[in-house]
Amino acid sequence: MVCLYCRVLAEFEPLPVHLMEEPLLFSMEDLQKVKKGQLVAQARAVLNYAMKHVESCELCMGRGFICEFCRIKDVIFPFQRDICKQCAVCRACFHIECFLEKRCPKCTRIQSRTKGQMNS
What we know:
120 residues; mainly alpha; 2 strands; 5% strand; Rubicon Homology domain-containing protein; Autophagy_HostDef_Reg; RH_dom
C-alpha cells in the first residue's frame, strides 16, 4: 500500500522539476506549453488533486489555521490567497476580511510573553 504523501508527491512528477524548486523560472519549453495551454492544464490538475488531499487528510488539516479574529471553525491555509491573509511577522493566517495588520493576536501573545520574561 502506498502512503498518501507519496501519492500526492507522485502527482507533481509530470510538472518540470525546476518549477517546483524555482516557480518563477520558466524554460522556453515551459513558455511554449503555456502558450498552448498545456502547462496551465497540468498545473491545475495537480493543484486540484493536492487541494482534495489537503481537505481530506488529517495531518494536512492539522497544519492549517483557524482565524483568531472570527474563530470560525473552517481551516485556512497560506496558499488560499483569495480568502487568507498571512501576518508578515509571525506568518499566522487569518481571513482577509478579518485581518487587522497592527493587531495580530499571535504577535500580541509573543510580545506579552517576551515582556513577561524580561520583567522576571
